Predict the structure.
Amino acid sequence: MAASPRSRRERPAKPALTREGIVAAAVAILRAEGLRKVTMRRLAQELDTGPASLYVYVRNTDELHAAVLDELLGSVAPVPAGGDWRQRLEKVLTAYTAMLLEHPSLARSALTAWPSGPNYLRLVETLLDLLRSGGVPRAQAAWGVDLLLQHATATAAEHAGEDTPGEWRALARALREAPSDTHPHIAASADALLAGTPEARLSWAFRTLINGIERTAVPD
Amino acid sequence: MAASPRSRRERPAKPALTREGIVAAAVAILRAEGLRKVTMRRLAQELDTGPASLYVYVRNTDELHAAVLDELLGSVAPVPAGGDWRQRLEKVLTAYTAMLLEHPSLARSALTAWPSGPNYLRLVETLLDLLRSGGVPRAQAAWGVDLLLQHATATAAEHAGEDTPGEWRALARALREAPSDTHPHIAASADALLAGTPEARLSWAFRTLINGIERTAVPD
DNA sequence: ACCTGAACACCGTTCAAGT
DNA sequence: ACCTGAACACCGTTCAAGT
């Protein structure tokens, strides 16, 4: 009679591969080392197998990243009830953006690979509910949700270039140094263009979007 | 006396490396094969040299992509004068978006690596001018330009996942199949959520943004 | 200063072969 | 059906050495 596997090794037995387990391991790597390390090869290594084995459960790297986002979406707390619908709307959107800002590279990939899991649907439902409670017509609310979520995702995705101080500084300099004869508006607005904390700008953007959504009719 | 280089080879003499030449070659590869092929190695091969040689002129791959975008920005035609400022604004933004839609993966990279070249400044100046001519206060116009350009860029970037039929279909299905007891708003709005041509939605989005920008004050 | 070959440390994905 | 080793076809970036 052979010894049980448990008595043979000190290490925990290698767990069977499942899609769930793969996604969980991917989330762990994301939190510890960032999305750039969430590769098929690194993941396989973590799961003590070869990269080819993962293709039984995940079609490709993009699908893997989408599954990871779906997972994280579950951690966005629901809005507490009560209060002004505009404020509540801004609060959900800010919470969603904050989650994405913890993983900007994931936001970047979410821009192309939209999630469609249960947590994403719950978020869409909440946004529709709030817009409708503010009296926004159904068609406008529907297109508005897309606009609001796109803004949140894109804003987080902008922070994906880990460093970016180079690019940002180059732009700030270019704006400040724009000659006022050829670029009078930029010269007059350089400070305004660069003003505001990220939080203030995000809040303004959401309020701007909501104001626009409220009063812009969808064609026909 | 040695023969002149010209008489020695049939091929045109290898041109000296310059940043300009490198960027031009990168644009050529982009047009012919897409951004995914605009790699240091592929570019070096095209220029008949080794990848290491490029690092004299370009800091890294991101900077290369930013330079390429800067180049393409020059191809966006200026707005013809005259007409309603809103319509003109929508027209410039649509032209900018159309250019980015020809290279969605470049739009994706533009979301993180903002250009700051002369063509980009010209675009910002035009947008500020149009918003000001519509009576939008300077501070709102400044933040508004950012919002408008971000929307254009993000919209183009969304199309970067070359195929994406999988993800899109999955989302459409999830929306249509959402049970009406737990997701009443989605159930009632499924058609509205999925309605509209990309052009109609882009136009609505720009008008929505402009309406919002017009009437949302910047803090303090 | 500019250019290069070669190396280091990685990738995604496929496929034939095994269990 | 699931899993694997090995291979194919690539990456970005650095560095010592040459001109």
About this structure: Residues 66 and 115 of chain B are 6 Å apart (CA to CA).
